Amino acid sequence: MSALADFRAELVERGWLLVDRDGLVAGTGDPLERVVAGLVAAIDDVSAQAGRPVQRVRFAPVTGQQLLEQTGYHTSFPQLIGVVHGLPRDASARRRVPEGEAWDHDFGRSGFGLVPSACHPLYAWLRGTQVTGTAYTLTGDCFRNEPSEDPFRRVSFRMREVVVLGTPAQAREHQRVWRSAGLALYRSLGLQVHDAAANDPFFGRQGAMLANNQRDEQLKFEFVVEPVPGHEVAIGSANYHEDHFGVDFAMTTPDGQPAHSACYGMGLERTALALAATHGFDPGRWPDEVRVALRLS
Amino acid sequence: MSALADFRAELVERGWLLVDRDGLVAGTGDPLERVVAGLVAAIDDVSAQAGRPVQRVRFAPVTGQQLLEQTGYHTSFPQLIGVVHGLPRDASARRRVPEGEAWDHDFGRSGFGLVPSACHPLYAWLRGTQVTGTAYTLTGDCFRNEPSEDPFRRVSFRMREVVVLGTPAQAREHQRVWRSAGLALYRSLGLQVHDAAANDPFFGRQGAMLANNQRDEQLKFEFVVEPVPGHEVAIGSANYHEDHFGVDFAMTTPDGQPAHSACYGMGLERTALALAATHGFDPGRWPDEVRVALRLS
């Protein structure tokens, strides 16, 4: 077995990941859940130290399918998208399914899609409003249609985000603060992390051109670890979106200009797994300072 | 406006529910999230008092589509199901979407479906194993394809469950304890709740016959409130499934018999909204004993 397959097998054995015999159940067990709760609390601690008031919001894993268009996700990452199909509203509800026939052959678009990135519904909610530099924090379930045996690459995963919408200066400052604070947070947890300028063509319609600029402009920093030898993983990022979401969702600052936005995002399962790879599978035996930061008893 | 529409408008106005201009964003704001966190803690308190060790697990909102068949949900409630469609694996990833053409016309079944009831992935995970009366607790996101203006009836909602799998005696006892403890919990929060024997044809293939028996056998008790005059809502239930899931998922007790199961489930958003209807929209001003039980400061 490869080192990655070994690591996955041990995650299942130790109750971190729950899979059924088809490998399809995407569950997580008690030790991982305790670590995830601790990571969320640690991010909230950093936010509190920054002094800016943070508003907590939460969005469901399912959203209106059109959000996937409004963000340009449908052209940037169509292969990762999941849209939801169901029975037409006027279909008779109870029915018998003939043996051997697919029971969903008459399903069609329901109008719902799966959220691909935790902060997207936030912009849809704020669409057409004035924003003033408020920070929002949320945990969102994300769906990416890329089944894999890699335990760091899950079809459904949770992302914790802290997002600021406001002036260019407010957004840039948010990215600057979290680039530094994010790095410090990971290192305080004993993770050997480096930050790397990255590109990520989430910029919809303008596509590849902006993706190239992104690296030059340092719009995206990823926090990268190597939990398994030879296997680098990004466990978070600090991003400055310029006016991308501000324009697409008609959000403006008080002076009438398009809002700029920035976000810090942590992949919760990924970070928890990186901690397991670093400190072992029993959080109760992790170094004192890590247990304190993550409220592990 | 009806009383229900008035209530919904106030939930949006007070930041409990977050909707965009299309009404499609299913978000929840800070006050509701604080109450939901308190409800989860209060359920854990009840579990701890019962003395039985409880194992925490968590399942993603997305599961293998076949789970919908294994539970019989595809014949019992086909109209509520959501299955996930995506691009075929071999589709070229990046592409241009011709103006006016649906960008998902070539999507097909991805093999994933949305979890309809929080405890179902638990049975898939435990399939083929021996169970010994362990209690599992989890918060799960559920999808029901029934868009509605009723704030108590959300397409995507969270359910907290405490499930026991074991002998018939263990499962019956779990239902008995939680029928009483659930009622006491709601009443301690100031909710005027009554419990009602109910039926719920989740029993798959055998369908209607079992649904009738269910009421006679008292397999399902719902906790019912009337948060808005004339609008009764079930905010939880205590259920005894007999060997339904034990047989379908080949779970056995140490003596080789099919496992029996029982669950207590609380609709988290529903219960939080019922509390808002009862105590008002500012949790900081709720009665002392309710704030203490829900850790509201």
UniProtKB/TrEMBL annotation, chains A, B:
Query: What Gene3D superfamilies does the record point to?
Result: Bira Bifunctional Protein, Domain 2
Q: Tell me where the signal peptide lies.
A: none
Location of the Aminoacyl-transfer RNA synthetases class-II family profile domain: 140-283
Q: Which PROSITE patterns match?
A: AA_TRNA_LIGASE_II
Report the protein name in the record. Aminoacyl-transfer RNA synthetases class-II family profile domain-containing protein
